Amino acid sequence: EVQLVESGGGLVQPGGSLRLSCAASGFTFSTYSMNWVRQAPGKGLEWVSYISSSSRIIYYADSVKGRFTISRDNAKNSLYLQMNSLRAEDTAVYYCATDRVGDLGAFDIWGQGTMGTVSS
Amino acid sequence: DIQMTQSPSSLSASVGDRVTITCRASQSISTYLNWYQQKPGKAPKLLIYAASSLQSGVPSRFSGSGSGTDFTLTISSLQPEDFATYYCQQSYNTPWTFGQGTKVEIK
Fold first, then answer.
1. What residues does B94 pair with on adjacent strands?
2. Between A and B, how many CB-CB pairs are < 8 A?
3. I need a labelling partner for B33 at 20 to 30 A (CA). Which of A100, B26, B79, B99 fits?
4. Vertex B69, ends B63 and B71: CA angle to 5°?
5. By the 8 A CB rule, do B97 and B6 touch?
6. Spacing of C-alpha A72 from chain mean position
7. What's the CA gap between B37 and B49, in Å, rounded?
8. Does B32 reach chain A within 8 Å, measured CB to CB?
9. What is the per-residue pLDDT across B65-106, written as a single tens digit (0 to 9) for each?
10. Could you give the CA distance from residue B8 to residue A1 in angstroms, rounded to a whole number?
């Protein structure tokens, strides 16, 4: 079964850090680009970051640039998001998602999401 | 950044109705437009990619059309399981951006 499973969410104070993980199974992880997408409570979807299959190409949304770092370990079939200098507005469900439909930026497989809450 | 605007923001419809949701981009995005369905507490699900290509496993009552700046998602005959929020997303260039969503509710 093709699956993505996120972990690592939790409650953190403003200025703190969280490291999210996404474990992939059921497909050849190393072949596909990966993304993080977030959704604040009661709000819409916001793309956060992209990493190519080889990690050579990385993009970030302006809202997280300089604070978040995306990475992957193809040997472990895993994707990561290191989130530093967290703000209240970073509170969201964070989804990992992949694009297997031809690198068209269409996210065909999503994880179940992990909640990150930034609050004092 | 490319802004994506959906209309309407919400709609009420009955089972069997034909439903149309519109998405407009702030600049031309060719056919780099995707549609997702999201139910409460669940991850989004890809319905349509590249403006009109039906994702594998998605019922044929869903269809997409458009190019340039104006796009449409159509549900030909609304089913009970289709009540959800729908999002468009441009993948023409980064940052990938989503519309604000259209909530389809039971009339």
1. none
2. 67
3. B79
4. 15
5. no
6. 10
7. 12
8. yes
9. 999 999 999 999 999 999 999 999 999 999 999 999 999 998
10. 36
User: Exposed, middle or buried: residue A36 (CB in 10 Å: 0-12, 13-18, 19+)?
Assistant: buried
Angstrom distances, CA of residue B78 to CA of A3, A32, A113, B15, B54:
29, 34, 28, 5, 17
| Strand, helix or coil for residue A76 | helix
Nearest Cα residue in chain A from B46? A108
Count of beta carbons in the 10 Å neighbourhood of residue A88 = 10
Nearest to B82 by CA among B39, B21, B43, B41: B39
Which residues have C-beta within 8 Å of that of residue A116, sequence separation ≥ 6? Answer: A9, A10, A12, A18, A20, A83, A86, A90, A91, A92, A93, A94
Residue B37 touches partner A, C-beta closer than 8 Å: no
- Per CB-CB distance under 8 Å, the chain A contacts of B38 are 45
How far are the Cα atoms of A42, A81, A92, A93 from residue A118, in angstroms, in the given order? 16, 16, 9, 12
Question: In this complex, which of A101, A104, A110 lies closest to B43 when CB atoms are compared?
Answer: A110
pLDDT tens, A46-82? Answer: 999 999 999 999 999 999 999 999 999 999 999 999 9
CA distance A65 to B93: 17
Residue of B nearest to A63 (CA): B95
Q: CA-CA distance, B38 to A105, in Å (whole number)? A: 18
Q: How far apart, in whole angstroms, are the C-alpha atoms of residue B18 and residue B22?
A: 13
List all residues of chain B from 39 to 78 with a beta carbon under 8 Å from chain A. 43-46, 49-50, 53, 55
Give the integer Cα–Cα distance in Å for A119 and B71. Answer: 39
